[in-house]
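#structure-requests
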Amino acid sequence: MNRKSVWIKADEGRWDDRKGRITTGLESGVDYVLVDANDVEKVRELGDIKVAAFAHDEKSAADIIVVGKGSEGDGAKPLPPDFSGSFDIITATRLKGKGLKVAGYVVIRNKQYEEFAAEMAGACDYIITVGTDWKVIPLENLIAGLHDKDVQIISGVRTSEEAKLSLETMEHGSDGVLLDTDDPSEIKKTVGMAERAGVESLELGAATITKVEQVGMGDRVCVDTCNLMTSGEGMLVGSQSCGLFLVNSEADDSPYVASRPFRVNAGAVHAYVLVGEKTKYLCELEAGDEVAIVNAAGEQRKGIVGRVKIERRPLMLIEADLNGKTVKTIVQNAETIKLVSKGGKPIAVTDLKAGDEVLVKFEEIGRHFGMKVEETIIEK
């Protein structure tokens, strides 16, 4: 799952003020901090984060060199007739030719600046566009005009609402946002929106339970994440890669054990679990790995594995029918392990019976080493 990026603009004002903005960004999980060239090392002292800096030569220690501030391209004055051969484009081309990551910075005041931004994008890895009174239409035009180009569009915004609009414009939206605010809540909201934006929802179907059967002792996997989940939210797990059951987190209260909203008691060691666009075996997961957290609506977000516990426990086989296809999974035989019903409500596996409907992600294409492949694969 490749979420869209959030950049924090911190190139103006007193350092102490900018430091607070940068620190909040670090704590909130922003991807880049944008500063002037002489502040790069100051930012690195605050934490491990990628730094973009306004500079014009390859001596900069920044991860991304940003070209455009203080020149005609930033919208400070009207564009001259021969602007297509401007210093900014020449500089960006030279820096990128040296193997550096380069971003172009353009304040869009009118159609001419929009056209220049599109032209400059051809020389950059990123194009940062900051609107004035005219925002949505230029962004739509740039998204349409650059969709087949190897450049990421970063849209300047001041609030989380503006960020939401930018990230959703023309369905695809910008590839990220440059946020200009000192408000900690706006920074946190924007990062949360970026985590969800650009991540496609999964199609989950209702499968009808056909068999619930105890199968004896085996090794099962508990996945403890660094994320808190809610009821109806969990992981997609199954014995066949073509059919993954939504296994509920332990977020629900139980008379047997305390709520553990960070945990999914996922299933037997052999089972597949969805990780981004791939699958892994549950027994392969380890601390620091990414895993998909999914809710009953199919909305997904990235989770980080904090710990994996493999223990010997009594197991049960669950089989279900989805459009004439049989899908299976094996989970621990305990009241705290739950699947998610068609209506989005958790249902304990110990209460399952034939005829119940649970949510499953089904796909016709098989997988090889976790990746989708067009070949005949039979899993029973």
